[in-house]
């Protein structure tokens, strides 16, 4: 006849040890969570200008997207060769705000135009691929921008601004 030892069967004391350990682990996690989460920047800091990265891979040629940085709409246009050629044919001296297309894009990345999508007249948001120059058209007061974001007609005094951005790789940019 063999007798069973206490090591073979869990006892009430073993259950209390496991339950106490589980409650302690949950309590420790509940204590540490706020300390770790407070190290992240709050939403107002992120909105105030934290840089954002944008993957350019899904943007087809001739298409543009709108992202938001610092609460402002940013247009990222994947321009066609035709759009680039048309923008570069324009005599800079004929523009109300003289700036060449080369000054508005990054060297080696002529197909990518990145501009703040706020009309420089009264702050409206222009529509992409509209107007006489296939660039941007502000329906509020009729300002027309070309495929380089330069003012061509209307009351807007200056070109659409180019935000600070860099190419992290050939397919990704960082704005801010």
Automatic annotation (TrEMBL):
It comes from the Bacteria. Its cofactor is [2Fe-2S] cluster. Keywords: 2Fe-2S, Cell membrane, Disulfide bond, Electron transport, Iron, Iron-sulfur, Membrane, Metal-binding, Translocase, Transmembrane, Transmembrane helix, Transport. It catalyses: a quinol + 2 Fe(III)-[cytochrome c](out) = a quinone + 2 Fe(II)-[cytochrome c](out) + 2 H(+)(out). GO terms for cellular component: plasma membrane. Its EC number is 7.1.1.8. It is a single-pass membrane protein. One of its GO terms (molecular function) is metal ion binding. The chain crosses the membrane at residues 15-36. Residues 87-174 form the Rieske domain. It is an enzyme of class 7 (translocase). Binds 1 [2Fe-2S] cluster per subunit. Belongs to the Rieske iron-sulfur protein family. PANTHER family: CYTOCHROME B-C1 COMPLEX SUBUNIT RIESKE, MITOCHONDRIAL (PTHR10134). Component of the ubiquinol-cytochrome c reductase complex (complex III or cytochrome b-c1 complex), which is a respiratory chain that generates an electrochemical potential coupled to ATP synthesis. The main subunits of complex b-c1 are: cytochrome b, cytochrome c1 and the Rieske protein. This is Ubiquinol-cytochrome c reductase iron-sulfur subunit. The lineage of its organism: Bacteria, Pseudomonadati, Pseudomonadota, Alphaproteobacteria, Hyphomicrobiales.
